[in-house]
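FAQ: What does a multi-protein file look like?

Like this. Sequence, then tokens, then the next protein.
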Amino acid sequence: MKLAWILLCSLLIWGCSDSAEDGKKKKNNDSENSSQTEAAVNPEDLVEVVGSTYTEYYDAAKTKIKFQGTRDDNEQRHGKWVFYREDGKESSISHYKHGVLHGFSQVKRPNGAFYYHGEYEDGKKIGVWKYYDEKGKFSHEINFDEE
């Protein structure tokens, strides 16, 4: 009886270890295939420039916009730029002047609620910036003119 019990336990351990090894091999193959797929995408394939409008995508099929905005003659961000999450929801809006943050800026949380908003002048925060909690309820404000 002891021999049968030992044999049964050995078979269970051996069977489980093979399954674990197969799982590790499958994970390794999956991550190798994933890396090859990611490596196959040329970063230039994710970008589209039409006139002064620059658009970068999450995917090579160009179905999901990552961010979009206008550029000046020196190809610096200039004007309104909108950033999106991978699910297509708007993440933030910022304004630039020749590559430097300048003007109104707002950032939203993944649930769409405001996180904060305020203004920049030549890359520096100015005026009152308002901050909100996870549900979008006003939390506090900071006046950067008083600092």
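And here is the next protein:
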Amino acid sequence: MKIKILTLIFSIMILSSCKEYLDVNNDPFIPQEGPPHLYVPQVIYAMAEGPMFDYRFVSRYIQHLQFTTANDNYDRQGRRALGGGLAASQTHRNHYWSIGSNLNQIELQAGRRGFGQYKAITTAIRAYSWHVATNQFGEMPYDQAWDNTRTKFDYNTQKDIYANVSKLYDEALAELGRSGGTIDPNLARVESIYGGNTQLWTKFVFAMKARLANHISNKRSYNPAQVIEFVDKALASNAEDAIVRFSTVATDIADRFSFMGPSRANFGAYRHGRTLINLMNGTHFNNVVDPRLPLFATVSTDGTFRSLAASAGLPAGSTLLNFPQVYGRYIFRDNEPYPIITYSELQFIKAEAALRAGNNTLAYQAFTTAIRANMQKAGVTEANIATFLSTAIPQTPATLEMKHIMSQKYIALYGQIEAWADLRRYNYNSNIFMGYTLPTNFLPENSGKSVQRCLPPSFSEEDWNSAAFRAIGGYDLDYHTKPLWFTTAEE
């Protein structure tokens, strides 16, 4: 939001002091606005960039990863210090600027040119962006967002935002069902998720509707049958996953390495968390080693897959050489696509909903399908998948429990911030997420409570929007432990 405010101030300065030069500066040979397709690659990249940036911090709440230094702030579920800038808040910035403002321009320029198909895709992306942002930050300015006549922005409740996200998804479906307008031949080239394919974008919207409907699992209004219905209308295989692609070739549209890869060097001080590794090394699943383990993690020189406990840092007498970095495996590679939502996740959502509805047979079918899909995505052989499914997990629908579903989903969401939504929905329950243990040394600011949200960027909300931020309790030291509406029983 600071960027919008600075833009407004800068615009006023120009209008007040340089009015007589406006005609001179408007070069008729240089376009003053770009065609809509030029904005699309940045929007697609920003959909992944925010979660990737913020995973550096949230991964330690999740315990997928831990810091090599003991008593780290985020390992202890602490918040970013007030005035701490952008840490754990890139998603907030991207939502309002890199995604939101660019979507506004796409819709404006596409409308002027009669390119009707853009509206459906931009609406779907806008809904997605609101969805992931509010899940991370809770209350946000919604009604007044992108109102360039304002310099202060009031917050909306998360309940209101969820209702509006649901409406946006439905609007996107309506737009996707329409035909007409001029086809922009550039869209298929620059829209790198689905190449402008409206059928696949429709499936994406249903996928996000399934995630949204399942997020409110603690409420009386939770409807498992509706969740399953949405899943069944969504992605049908790994080939339909919504992913953001990267390339090491500078001339490609996606001309940047993944934020998660070694070339970007953002995870050098991170090592695999004990919760993740113990879920895969046989500790919890019938003493069977998960075939994804060597694909997710690098073995130490002594043949051990080492891990760190939350906030413990390196064990006494150990060196970094004993604990290989996370790079070079699975999602932590330069050109590995980043998942927005996947077929595997949807099948886990279906399994959870079916088990809640008492349909163990359907839950078991979706559960095994979800594991298989994630293993195939990771590169596990069919023989090893079959062995794991026949030895490690419950063998009948009657013996399937929620802990099996959610712990396997936790593995499948490795590298993704969405895993934090599940942990908060279940209040970090170690009976649901096997082996997960909250740190015993919460920071004093937590007042003994677990973390529930991130803080928005300090430069926009603390510096420029402080009155509205204060009104929702943003300056309270334990604000980050305030439960979000979607995780509670409140209707």
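Q: Is there any per-entry metadata?
A: Some entries carry free-text notes. For the entry above: The CA atoms of residues 39 and 102 lie 6 Å apart.
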